[in-house]
Design goal:
Helix content is 41%, strand content 13%. The protein has 662 residues and is an alpha/beta fold. Strands 10-9-11-12-14-13 form a six-stranded parallel beta sheet, sandwiched between helices. Strands 1-2-3-7-6 form a five-stranded parallel beta sheet, sandwiched between helices.
Length: 662
């Protein structure tokens, strides 16, 4: 494409960005003005996509990691023919518009991931490139390259300063994710001013040390942009292109200044900028007919590219039917009923982390899309299933990932893999380290995507490692996060049910909170207990006496304490119902009638017991109930002693419960 044409496209983007921010009287015009030239070359000459089908599997992925510059992607989506009418650009940042302040997945057609918290988008992109590499290694045979696409990122200084990007980009370099290309908006300006206020390392040397291919160019030189992307695509390593740009490009008084970063240019400056760039000052949101005719060619071109791919997939099916069937299973992220046919565990003792590992051994080979991993805790998390092989440079088709000690990067990479499609990722770490993962877990919940977290060593029950590793507030904290499902099973059979719940849930992430220590696995039928499958309702009656006087509610390792407390109370002729509540969020979604049946208002005497913060349990025990929990940090000692010292015993629970009976 001629450079003069690219300039017209870039300036059209600039005009739309200026007008969108001015109309909202809010937003970030500087980055779209600065990166419009880079984006124009990428979208016009390199990006493989189908605007009529934003979910086409073999499309290139484009991630605007610098999500504050959202008018850039909204302008691109409109110009290149996505279902984003100009009216939506005029409603930028307004109620119920498709053009939110930061790009949101599943809200705006063509937005691949929710970005804004810096560092997340580039880290998601690592996951996308990882999924592409894994799937291409598994399913591309001979001339049938059914998985063959790139992931492009526009990232800012802020993205590269955030710690999460260091974790993810180190991982990308180690694993040579060569289909990942980052276009770094190297404008040397942050909100506070010049980046040298806080940021002085040589970024490209750092990325070279990670194992990346690096280049530095003038981000306003179309020939240089084109040549750099071409070189990056030819590299056998992930690539970063430092594009030296001018923030607020074209603004006579604010270009190159932090003043253009996060505020409208202002009416007068907007007019001056448009005049300097040769953009008509009226009407606002002006689009040159010639530009629109050129950019909208992406619609027929994209449809043709997808048709060609579909033909290739059909040939692949005829040539390699078994492999093609597995490929389709991955595309659909299928979880068969057979995979979830898990036999009951026998009565005995078993840690729920061990039970989780045994479940994975049974199901992993039956779910082609399932991909595991751990942040350097594989032996402890029990996440490496039988039949899996490690992903590596020598074995890119492997379905188990060694993330290294990179919990936050791991969670964000998982989000990218889920968003890419074709994989169902799960990963493991100690529950306490969700402190490091939380921002990415929150975005998974916000986007409503299926990422599964195996979170072991869930309480003071891990014992001697002490309070640094003993999660106390984490259950309450994560239960407060909308759309994150937290399941803390009481035994091996509830653990199997928890895995079924996580795998069949498609509208959000799930955390499986599991013990280090052994727990009782009851012979439920012999003891008249409720079936473990009832855990699917979040909470259920485990065991009860007729005409019960008090309800004991618990989760995980403390359920057996509640069962033992019931026996002690029975000795005092106090009748008890024990409720296992592995998932408060699932229980809360049940019908009012079901919840009343489990926790009837007619029985206000209630005690909750859990080795964690007490705050969330008052919702279930009420003002007249009691909570036996931990509102302080743990200690280093054998776990049996810790439970005794902190009052998490059947004797103490029975005593508290007896005190409620009048």
């Amino acid at each position: 494409m001629k450079n003069q044409t690219l300039k017209k496209i870039a300036n059209t983007i600039r005009g739309l960005a200026i007008d969108g921010v001015e109309a909202a009287n809010s937003g970030h015009p500087g980055m779209p003005l600065g990166m419009a030239d880079v984006a124009s070359v990428l979208w016009s000459e390199f990006l493989k996509h189908n605007p009529q089908n934003p979910h086409w599997f073999d499309r290139d992925r484009f991630v605007l990691s610098a999500g504050h510059g959202s008018m850039l992607i909204y302008s691109l989506l409109h110009l290149y023919g996505y279902d984003l009418p100009l009216e939506e650009l005029k409603n930028f940042r307004q109620w119920e518009s498709k053009t939110a302040g930061h790009p949101e997945y599943n809200h705006t057609p063509g937005v691949e991931t929710t970005t804004g918290p810096l560092g997340q988008g580039i880290s998601n992109a690592v996951g996308m490139a990882l999924a592409e590499k894994m799937l291409s290694a598994r399913f591309n045979k001979g001339s049938y390259r059914v998985v063959n696409h790139h992931t492009y990122v526009i990232a800012s200084d802020g993205d590269l300063q955030e710690g999460i990007s260091h974790e993810a980009c180190s991982f990308a370099g180690h694993n040579r994710l060569s289909k990942l290309i980052v276009l770094y908006d190297d404008n040397q300006i942050s909100i506070d001013g010049d980046t040298h206020l806080s940021f002085s390392e040589d970024v490209l040397k750092r990325y070279e040390a990670y194992g990346w291919h690096t280049q530095r160019i003038d981000g306003h030189d179309y020939d240089a942009i084109r040549a750099a992307i071409t070189l990056a695509r030819a590299s056998d390593r992930p690539s970063i292109i430092a594009c030296r740009t001018v923030i607020g490009f074209g603004s006579p008084n604010k270009a190159g200044s932090e003043e253009s970063h996060g505020s409208p240019l202002g009416k007068a400056e907007a007019i001056l900028t448009k005049k300097k760039l040769g953009i008509p000052t009226e009407p606002p949101f002006y689009i040159n007919d010639e530009v629109l005719k050129i950019t909208r060619k992406a619609v027929p071109d994209g449809a043709k590219a997808e048709r060609n791919w579909q033909e290739l997939v059909e040939k692949h099916q005829k040539s390699r039917p078994e492999l093609a069937a597995a490929f389709q299973s991955c595309l659909n992220t299928e979880v068969s009923a057979d995979a979830l046919n898990i036999p009951d565990f026998p009565a005995g003792k078993m840690a729920t982390r061990i039970a989780s590992g045994k479940v994975l051994d049974l199901i992993a080979a039956k779910i082609p899309a399932l991909v595991g991993g751990s942040a350097d805790l594989t032996p402890s998390n029990k996440t490496f299933a039988k039949g899996q092989t490690p992903f590596s440079l020598k074995n890119p088709a492997g379905q188990y990932i060694h993330y290294g000690v990179r919990e936050h990067g791991m969670a964000a990479i998982m989000n990218g893999m889920t968003l890419h499609g074709g994989v169902i990722p799960y990963s493991g770490t100690f529950f306490v380290f969700t402190d490091y993962m939380r921002p990415s877990m929150r975005l998974a919940a916000l986007m409503g995507i299926r990422s599964i977290y195996v979170l072991t060593h869930d309480s003071i029950g891990l014992g001697e490692d002490g309070p640094t590793h003993q999660p106390i507030e984490h259950l309450t904290s994560l239960r407060a996060m909308p759309n994150l499902s937290i399941i803390r099973p009481m035994d091996a059979n509830e653990t199997a049910v928890a895995w079924k719940m996580a795998l069949t849930r498609t509208d959000g992430p799930t955390g499986l909170v599991l013990t280090r220590q052994n727990l009782a696995n009851y012979d439920r039928a012999a003891l008249g207990m409720g079936a473990a499958e009832e855990a699917r309702k979040g909470g259920y009656v485990l065991v009860e006496d007729k005409d019960f006087q008090i309800i004991l509610i618990s989760s995980g390792s403390e359920v057996e304490i509640a069962v033992a407390a019931k026996a002690l109370l029975n000795q005092k002729n106090i009748r008890v119902r024990v409720v296992s509540m592995p998932s408060t969020d699932v229980f809360d979604k049940q019908s009012a009638a079901y919840k009343e049946n489990v926790l009837p208002a007619s029985c206000p005497a209630r005690v909750a017991v859990e080795a964690g913060a007490s705050l969330g349990w008052y919702k279930y025990v009420g003002l007249n109930g009691r909570v036996v929990g931990l509102d302080h940090f743990g200690a280093s000692a054998p776990y049996e002693l810790l439970y005794e010292k902190f009052g998490l015993t059947a004797e103490n629970v029975a005593g508290v419960a007896a005190g409620l009976i009048k």
